[in-house]
Amino acid sequence: xxxxxxxxxxxxxxxxxxxxxxxxxxxxxxxxxxxxxxxxxxxxxxxxxxxxxxxxxxxxxxxxxxxxxxxxxxxxxxxxxxxxxxxxxxxxxxxxxxxxxxxxxxxxxxxxxxxxxxxxxxxxxxxxxxxxxxxxxxxxxxxxxxxxxxxxxxxxxxxxxxxxxxxxxxxxxxxxxxxxxxxxxxxxxxxxxxxxxxxxxxxxxxxxxxxxxxxxxxxxxxxxxxxxxxxxxxxxxxxxxxxxxxxxxxxxxxxxxxxxxxxxxxxxxxxxxxxxxxxxxxxxxxxxxxxxxxxxxxxxxxxxxxxxxxxxxxxxxxxxxxxxxxxxxxxxxxxxxxxxxxxxxxxxxxxxxxxxxxxxxxxxxxxxxxxxxxxxxxxxxxxxxx
Length: 386
Hints:
20 strands; alpha+beta; three-stranded antiparallel beta sheet
């Protein structure tokens, strides 16, 4: 806006308009192009504004609508909502704004097509798909509660603290206007639950640490989400109580020898209590039993001593068996001279195989050895003839 003498001039672009005031009273809107008005008294003022997809302060728009209703109707779209209403405002066919309850917003419609759809949220709790597609959920709004439930999940709809319905997989959106809406979700797949080591005294006053792994699965979503603030944490505590009871009633030797029994006792203790929370208990198993250092050393020594004793026993059993076999052989030879003779020949045969030359000398044993060699020679010749 410029003044040249008695003239007020302005150059406006296509996306601009100028509000024209005389003595502070709004009298019109100047369009694009060059604006020139004779103003010798300086009573006119111009306010240049961007009008393409733009808003104007709703208070000003309402004042203009009261003072110049026809002019305001031509240039402004005023959107007002009641206590239980919201409005979706589209600019040139594109949804851009969600007007909250008890709100007023005003938009320039000089160069922009403005459409506003008002929705009575008191009549419908759920947001219709056509409305949901227009709302930009990335701009988090308190008017809509949105939840995406995966195929492995289930949800509960809570309105004003009251359970309404179970929600299956898919997109769900609800109007959070004049009411408090919550959507609770639960994963229905089996979940591992690691119970970390805790110090427990056994029946014989030995402090050990036990870790356990359990698998849980939600089978009743309503019980699991509404029956306890945290069902998983509650089951964790139940398992801890069960382990303490199982360990405190057994000695260390019983615990090390009967881990499967402990698993069964813990499962029996937890299963019924978990069912009240809508949770099913799958496998439960003791993962580790951690002993104090001195106890572990003693057990290692006991195990080592047991292995040494077992090895000695096996060795003695083998020696006894070998001695018994020799005794049986000796008895057979004593009863059967021919068998003794064959044994002598076998021994001599093995000796001949390892010795290349044998010299015989006269003496007490020469005739006996000579007879053995002669017998061996005859056996070899008979084998060759065959």
